[in-house]
Design a protein that fits this description.
237 residues; alpha+beta; 3-stranded antiparallel β-sheet; 24% strand; globular; SapC; SapC family protein
Length: 237
C-alpha cells in the first residue's frame, strides 16, 4: 500500500532515504520500465525488450534483469552489479505528481510507505535551514529526465508500430544444470524489417529522433547472453 505525499521541507525535514540496493528495499525485480531517452545508457548493461500493455493498445520498454518474477541477476551481496540503474528504479521512492487542480505544474512526491524510508538511516533530503540537499537536487533532475522521457515515449512506440518494427520474442534457454528458462510475451525490434525500410522511412525516423533508440535497443540484445551467464553462475553457486 503506497502513501504518496507532496514533498516539503516542513513535513519531511527529518526524513532519510536509503540509497543502497537490496531485495528488502524493492530491488528484487525481473525488469523495470525504461524510456527511449535513456536507451543508450541502459543498453550498456541490460537487454531492452518491449511488452504490450494489458489493454493491448500500446507498448512499453523494459530493462531486463532476470528470467522469472522477483529475480534480479544484477543484485548481489555487494549491491547492484552494474554502473547504471534505469531511472525508474534510481528515483525511488520519489515520483512526479501534478497539482490537484490539474495542469502541467509538477511537484515532487514521496512514497512514505516505501521500504527506502530509512528512519535513522540513509541520506537527508533537506539541510538544517530547509534547503534541498545535493542528493535531493540530483533526484529532482532525474525525475525531470524520466518525466520528459515518458512524455516523448508514445511517439516512439507509435513509430515502431507505424513501420511494423516489432516482432514477438520467444526465448528458451537451457542452463548448464539442464533446467530451462523461458522469456515469453515480449517483443524485440524486427531487424529484417528495419533493414528493408526505404530512405524516406529512415529519414522520418531519424528526423524524429527515433533511429538512435532503435539501434540501441537492437544492440542491447547482445546482453541476453550475459543474463544467461549470470544465471548459470547463480545455479552453480
Amino acid at each position: 500500500m503506497s502513501d504518496h505525499q507532496i514533498l516539503t521541507a516542513e513535513t519531511h525535514a527529518a526524513v532519510r532515504v536509503r540509497t543502497d540496493c537490496a531485495a528488502e528495499l524493492g530491488d528484487a525485480v525481473m525488469c523495470c520500465l525504461t524510456v527511449p531517452a535513456e536507451f543508450r545508457q541502459v543498453q550498456e548493461h541490460y537487454p531492452i525488450l518491449f511488452r504490450q500493455d494489458a489493454e493491448r493498445t500500446g507498448f512499453t520498454a523494459l530493462a531486463m534483469f532476470g528470467f522469472v518474477d522477483g529475480e534480479n541477476l544484477f543484485l548481489g551481496e555487494h549491491g547492484w552489479d552494474a554502473r547504471y540503474r534505469p531511472l525508474a528504479l534510481a528515483i525511488q521512492p520519489f515520483l512526479i505528481g501534478r497539482t490537484a487542480a490539474g495542469g502541467d505544474r509538477q511537484q515532487v512526491h514521496i512514497d512514505m510507505a516505501s521500504p527506502r524510508i530509512g528512519g535513522g538511516e540513509g541520506v537527508q533530503l533537506f539541510d538544517e535551514v530547509g534547503r534541498p540537499t545535493p542528493y535531493l537536487e540530483a533526484i529532482a533532475e532525474r525525475l525531470g529526465e524520466l518525466d520528459e522521457g515518458y512524455r516523448a515515449a508514445p511517439d516512439f512506440f507509435a513509430a515502431l508500430e507505424r513501420y511494423d518494427l516489432l516482432e514477438p520474442l520467444t526465448l528458451e534457454i537451457t542452463l548448464d544444470d539442464g533446467s530451462i528458462n523461458r522469456l515469453v510475451g515480449f517483443h524485440v525490434i524486427d531487424e529484417q524489417q528495419l533493414r528493408s525500410l526505404d530512405a524516406g522511412a529512415i529519414a522520418d525516423l531519424h528526423q524524429a529522433g527515433h533511429l538512435m533508440p532503435i539501434f540501441m535497443a537492437v544492440a542491447s540484445l547482445g546482453h541476453l547472453g550475459d543474463l544467461v551467464a549470470r544465471k548459470n553462475r547463480l545455479v552453480h553457486g
